[in-house]
Hints:
Order of helices and strands of chain A: EHEEHEEHEEH
Shape of chain A: globular
Number of domains of chain A: 1
Radius of gyration of chain B: 12 Å
Strand order of the largest sheet of chain B: 2-1-5-3-4
Helix content of chain A: 25-40%
CATH superfamily of chain A: Molybdopterin biosynthesis MoaE subunit
Distance between the termini of chain A: 53 Å
CATH architecture of chain A: Alpha-Beta Complex
CATH class of chain B: Alpha Beta
Strand content of chain A: 25-35%
Number of strands of chain A: 7
Number of domains of chain B: 1
Strand content of chain B: 25-35%
Largest sheet of chain B: 5 strands, mixed
Largest interface: A-B, 42 and 37 residues
Structural class of chain A: alpha+beta
Oligomer: heterodimer
Number of helices of chain B: 2
Number of strands of chain B: 5
Order of helices and strands of chain B: EEHHEEE
Amino acid sequence: MSDMELYEGPLNVKEIFGRWLDEEAESNYGAYIPFVGTIRAEDGIEALSFDIYEPVLRNWFDAWQAKAAERGARVKMAHSVGDVPVHTSSYVAAVFSPRRRVALELIEEFVEDFKANAPIWKYDVVEGRRIYAEDRSTPMEGAGVLADAKLGMRNEE
Amino acid sequence: MVKVEFLGPIAREPMELEVASLAELSKVLFEEESIRPWLEKCAVAVNDVMVKDPNHPLKEGDRVSILPPVCGG
């Protein structure tokens, strides 16, 4: 299986982490650092819901895998598509590396960059309705390029 | 023709346009009332590769994706 997995609905966290552990059992990594994102009950939501644009997500992930490989490490992630009820998990990630220091650093960089640049859109589900989580969303790196393009053209006119 | 698709929460059907650059595309999109408020905050991918250069050319058959602000996890 690829190191990036997508699932409809909540993740089976125990299965995924157990399988990843088995997959790398003979890889001679000294450190395995997993991260679990769990949906908290707040503001009356029943669930969160996610849209993903897989081709760009895959390119983003492959670039990270190459970056991890330069440091002798390996990253894995799984994410949900569609509705994920409160108190279940929509995102897990992990870093494997020969030594702990690289894994500790990479898990932070990987999870933070994921938040900022993975092409995933989040919605609150309230009374069965999906509401875009606009106030928690951030523009991706390179956002505004269309406005810049328009400005450039105006300057040429 | 260049195909333009709007991802995530932007409720808009895909468009097919005769445009030769991001600048030309931008001009068309800024004229659309339902899209305009999104554009300052959106990133752009051409054929699934993120594009940061406002002078990026477009050619026949290119697929442009408009990506609004994200929040994974």
